[in-house]
Amino acid sequence: MGSCIEVKMFSKTSRKKTLIIIFLTFASLLGFPIIAPALPSVRDAFNISTSDIGLVMAAYSAPGIIFIPIMGLLADRYGKKRVLVPSMLLFALGGSACAIAQDTETLLLFRFFQGIGACALATINVSWAVDLFENDERIKIMGYIGATQNIGSGILPIIGGFLASLAWFYPFLVTLLVLPLGFYLLIFMEEKSQEKNSKSINPKNFISYAWQHLNDKIVIEIVFMTGAFIFIGFGALITYLPIFLKDTFNTPEIIIGIIVGFRAVMGVITATRLATISKYFSYRIIIFVSFLVLAAGMITIPYANNQWFVLFTSMCYGGAFGLLRPSLQYLLLEHAPINLRSTFASASNFGLRLSQTLSPIFAGLYLTFGSFKGLYILATILAIFMALFSLTATSLRVERSNPN
Question: Of 12, 30, 191, 331, which has the most beta carbons under 10 Å away?
Answer without folding.
Answer: 30
